[in-house]
Amino acid sequence: MKLLHNATIALMGLALTFSSASFADADTLTKNLKNNYPNLSAKVVGKSPVDDIYEVQVAGNLVYTDEDARYFFVGNLVDFKTKTNLTEQRQQELNQINISQLPLENAVKNVKGKGERKLYVFSDPDCPYCQRLEQELTTVDNVTIYTFIMPLKALHPNAETIAKKVWCSKNRYEAWEDYMLHKQAPSAVDNCKNPIAQNIDLAATLNITGTPTLFLNNGQRISGSRTAQELEMLLDTVK
Hints:
The chain is α+β, with helices and mostly antiparallel strands. It contains eight helices and eleven strands. The chain has helices at residues 2-22, 26-36, 86-95, 128-137, 159-168, 172-182, 196-205, 228-236; strands spanning 42-47, 54-58, 61-65, 72-73, 78-79, 84-85, 108-112, 117-123, 143-149, 213-216, 221-223. The strands form three sheets. A five-stranded mixed β-sheet has the order 7-9-8-10-11. It has a four-stranded antiparallel β-sheet with strand order 1-2-3-4, sandwiched between helices.
């Protein structure tokens, strides 16, 4: 009995040892990420549903790795039982923002109809996808649109000048729409006090790396242009 008792204790101790070792350590992973990839902007954001595998955000994308940070799983983690794309679901949660913290005074505002629904857009005047979005928005009604103009200067060298001229115009939205829909450049000066640099900084803090990037009133992020029909459906999902 004594031998059995001792063997049981030994087995329990061994099980506990393996159990403790099986849990990946987020702090260890963070250190390994910094040591292994000092120039990589990576952040541990949580545990995945898979044992010992952690969620890591890299350049706004969600990837998976263990505490050694050597091998990475890149792609969608799917729950086949529920047919749920867990990566997409989690990415939406991580990319959600607090709308109340947006400096709306730095955005070009346009109220269409009653303006009951809200849409927040980060847009570059010379981005063709942004221009396509503006075309789609012409048929969307009952919405208040806040456009944060953020020129991607590396891609579009003239966009910053256009952005400033739009802001310096007497009717900002009209100047914005004329340029985006008709390529009619604003005639205003470009040296008035403007928030363009602040918008670029804000976009960086929100991990916005491309345009257009949209946010619904609940903080949900939408990357890329959408059709008018898609926008209507998205706006209607937010009460």
